[in-house]
């Protein structure tokens, strides 16, 4: 197989990453004009509208990328993986426990509870719907990045997808958040890539695990 054969999948990974930028366009370009105020001064309703519009754009982009991959490359992202061994489930469980511990110490308690009390029930629900769509795009970066580099280097036991997520979505957090968050996100990205391989590339198992690791 020619080395260039992975380029199409790599471009899909980049398309998924670029789609994350829709939120930036909304938050710093369109919405300040609509609301007449910056993000820091948004009301709860404006924050919810932001999440809703972001989810619509992210959802449309994700659907388009998945559909394109199926039509162009006959790649079904929802194809079932092979049965997982007990040791694979145990390693994934260790990843989840490790992330819960890191999150607990980083937030000084339960992240979910702190966000619930900070946002209130309505705003909290919309924020976590937003997380669902963000995780979808991160998962697409991971999957297509993994395929691209496997086709280029013919190695299937290296979490290439996690590396791509780390140097795209992960590094992005250095600019949108802070250094500590950036470092944690890059390490998380590598773990996400490992989880994808541990599930034998079964997206139906990978996605809910990544969402738990990402959100909690």
In short:
The protein is mainly alpha-helical and 216 residues long. It has helices at 7-35, 44-73, 86-107, 111-119, 121-153, 160-176, 179-198, 203-215.
Describe the structure.
Helix 1 (7-35) runs antiparallel to helix 5 and helix 3 (86-107) packs antiparallel against helix 7 (179-198). The protein is built from 8 helices and no strands. It is mainly α and 216 residues long. The relative contact order is 0.15. The protein has helices spanning 7-35, 44-73, 86-107, 111-119, 121-153, 160-176, 179-198, 203-215. The model has no long low-confidence stretch (mean pLDDT 91).
Which structural traits does this protein have?
216 residues, mainly alpha, 8 helices, 80% helix, globular
What structural class is derived from the secondary structure elements?
A: mainly alpha
Shape: globular
Mean pLDDT: 91
Helix share bin: over 70%
Query: Could you name the ranges where pLDDT drops below 50 across 5 or more consecutive residues?
Result: none
Put simply, the count of helices is: 8
Tally of strands: 0
- The whole-angstrom Rg is 18 Å
- N to C succession of SSEs: HHHHHHHH
- Estimate what percentage of residues fall within beta strands: under 5%
Q: CA-to-CA gap between the ends?
A: 41 Å
The main β sheet shows up as: none
Write the layout of secondary structure elements.
Layout: H1 7-35, H2 44-73, H3 86-107, H4 111-119, H5 121-153, H6 160-176, H7 179-198, H8 203-215
């Amino acid at each position: 197989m020619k080395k260039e054969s992975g380029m199409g999948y790599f471009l899909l990974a980049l398309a998924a990453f670029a789609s994350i930028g829709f939120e930036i366009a909304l938050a710093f370009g369109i919405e300040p004009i609509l609301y007449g105020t910056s993000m820091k001064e948004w009301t709860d309703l404006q924050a919810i509208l932001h999440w809703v519009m972001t989810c619509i754009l992210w959802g449309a982009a994700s659907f388009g990328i998945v559909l394109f991959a199926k039509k162009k490359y006959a790649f079904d992202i929802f194809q079932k993986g092979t049965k997982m061994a007990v040791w694979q489930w145990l390693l994934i469980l260790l990843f989840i426990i490790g992330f819960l511990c890191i999150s607990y110490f980083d937030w000084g308690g339960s992240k979910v509870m702190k966000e619930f009390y900070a946002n209130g029930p309505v705003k909290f629900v919309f924020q976590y719907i937003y997380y669902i769509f963000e995780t979808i795009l991160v998962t697409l970066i991971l999957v297509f990045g993994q395929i691209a580099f496997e086709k280029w280097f013919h190695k299937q036991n290296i979490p290439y997808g996690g590396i791509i997520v780390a140097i795209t979505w992960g590094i992005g957090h250095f600019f949108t958040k802070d250094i500590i968050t950036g470092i944690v996100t890059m390490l998380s990205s590598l773990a996400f890539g490992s989880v994808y391989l541990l599930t034998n590339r079964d997206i139906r198992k990978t996605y809910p695990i990544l969402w738990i690791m990402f959100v909690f």
